[in-house]
Each structure stands twice: as structure tokens, then as C-alpha cells.
Design brief:
single chain
């Protein structure tokens, strides 16, 4: 299917790595969503490049929205000629260009059910022009929050977190970032410890007050009585690497905790897809 290419002229804004058909597809989708007045944010490689200067060439295009807006966005893309699906209903839908194999990820949470897209993503979003189309980008803080929990064997986003901290640490809203991680503050602390290891000269990018607060919490936990509840929180950072813990070893799955936006059916569906997603990753 031919997707209409909105103005301006293609060659003025098309990156060299994008095929004309792919370029037209992404632009037509953003333009249609803009004309509809849909609430969405651009994330993924395009937001990462804006914040860090690091460009990556991927086969997909990530947009983020509130879950309540996903149906409307998918309807717009469906009318445009895409094949749409709710790939993982708790966090991800997709819109495919059947002719080229390109697709758009429509993301409204994280695979772990933690980094749910809410109004604050939009309040703190950043205006930008992507492929010649005016859009708003996901905030750096929320990107760090979302990527911080991706620690699979085949995909680890800690390097992205480190690069975002390196590029944006001095201007981050650290109070909001601490609030976003909330009770999972140890995950944030782990990334900050690694950041100081990766970039010794840049350690001061992270405010001393943040380090002090997280170390205070760590010290308090070190002397506290461990919880009686046998819960494994590893499933919040990897859907695959802690299955033995919530299986034969008898730990409770932290994804069933209150506040985590996953049901037992979501967990089962997300787990069944592990092998297929590994194959797709290794095949790229």
C-alpha cells in the first residue's frame, strides 16, 4: 500500500538509512495522528538520538500513549491502511505496513507493568520535529524509568540509561525520577553505581543528595528484619531469567503485587512469547 507523503519535500528530511517507503510510512502515520488530534509521544531511537546524539537504525518506530487512547490511535492507523494488533494487551500494540515489513509500536506501559504512561509523560514532553513532522518526545526521565527495568539476557538497556545520564544528568528532574522508581529504588541505585563505574570523571552529574538518599535507604534496609514474604522481584527486570524462582523454587511472582499492571493471563501470554521474541531478536 502506498502511504501519502506529506510536505515538505522528502529529500530534505529523509535520513540516508531510511528507505523511501519506510520514510513515507512513518511520516504518514504521524501526520494522520496529528490531523486526528491524537495524544501520542515519539520515543525509541528518535527520542534517544535527540537526548544523547547517538543514532541507531531500527526497523520499528515507537510511539507512546495512555492506555485509554490506544484504541483511538490504532483506529487512525487502521484507516490509514495498517494491519493493527494488540500484541501484548497489558503494554504493547503494533501497526504493520504489510508491504514493507515496517511497523509502529504503540506503547502504553512496560513489559513488567511498571512504567505506565500517564499524564505526566505529556506534561513533561519535549517538542521536536521528527522526519519533518512536528511531534512531542517522551521525557528523558520517563525513558530512564522504563529502560531501567530491561535486563534480559538478549537485551539489556543499562547502556542506554548510562548514556542518558551522561547526556542529560545535569538537567534531569531527580525528584521526579526518584518518585518514578518509588519502592523499586534499588534498580535506580544499581544504574547510578554502574554509571559511576563507567564514567569516573562524570560522577558529579548525579547530585550528592540523590546518592545520599539512596544510600540512606540501603543502610536502613541492611539493618532491618528481612520481609517474611517469599517474593522474587527478578521478574520485574527479566521475564525469562527468573522463571525457575517462581516455579520450582517456590517464590511468589512480584508481578502479582498490587500496583503492577499485569494479570495472571498477561504474565502467561508474556512468558509464552519468550522464545519467539528471542528468535526475532537474533534474526535481526
Amino acid at each position: 500500500m502506498d502511504f501519502p507523503v506529506p510536505e515538505p519535500d522528502e529529500e530534505a528530511v529523509r535520513p540516508a538509512h531510511l528507505e523511501p517507503a519506510t520514510f513515507a510510512f512513518y511520516r504518514a502515520c504521524m501526520q494522520a495522528l496529528n490531523e486526528e488530534g491524537a495524544d501520542y509521544l515519539v520515543g525509541g531511537a528518535y527520542a534517544f538520538a535527540r537526548y544523547t546524539g547517538i543514532e541507531r537504525h531500527t526497523k520499528d518506530f515507537d510511539i507512546f500513549c495512555r492506555q485509554k487512547d490506544a484504541d483511538r490511535i490504532l483506529a487512525v492507523l487502521d484507516r490509514l491502511g495498517c494491519r493493527t494488533e494488540r500484541t501484548f494487551p497489558h503494554w504493547l500494540a503494533k501497526a504493520f505496513n504489510a508491504e514493507t515489513g515496517d511497523f509502529i509500536d504503540v506503547i502504553y506501559s512496560s513489559g513488567s507493568g511498571i512504567a505506565v504512561v500517564d499524564d505526566e509523560w505529556f506534561t513533561h514532553s519535549v517538542p521536536e520535529v521528527v522526519l519533518g513532522i512536528p511531534v512531542r518526545l517522551c521525557p528523558a526521565e520517563e525513558i530512564i524509568w522504563s529502560k531501567g527495568f530491561i535486563m534480559e539476557r538478549e537485551r539489556y538497556d543499562g547502556n542506554d540509561v548510562a548514556h542518558l545520564l551522561h547526556a542529560r544528568g545535569a538537567s534531569l528532574d531527580w525528584d521526579r525520577l526518584l518518585r518514578r522508581f518509588g519502592e523499586h529504588w534499588r534498580v535506580l541505585l544499581s544504574h547510578l553505581v554502574l554509571f559511576g563505574f563507567i564514567y569516573p570523571p562524570e560522577r558529579s552529574v548525579v547530585p550528592a543528595s540523590v546518592h545520599n538518599e539512596l544510600m540512606r535507604r540501603l543502610q536502613a534496609e541492611a539493618t532491618a528484619t528481612p520481609p517474611d514474604d517469599r517474593t522474587c522481584q527478578g521478574t520485574l527486570i527479566s521475564r525469562a531469567q527468573y522463571l525457575v524462582d517462581i516455579g520450582p523454587w517456590g517464590y511468589r511472582d512480584a508481578r502479582l503485587n498490587p500496583g503492577i499492571k499485569m494479570t495472571p493471563a498477561d504474565i502467561a501470554h508474556w512468558t509464552r512469547a519468550i522464545d519467539a521474541d528471542k528468535d526475532a531478536t537474533h534474526g535481526r
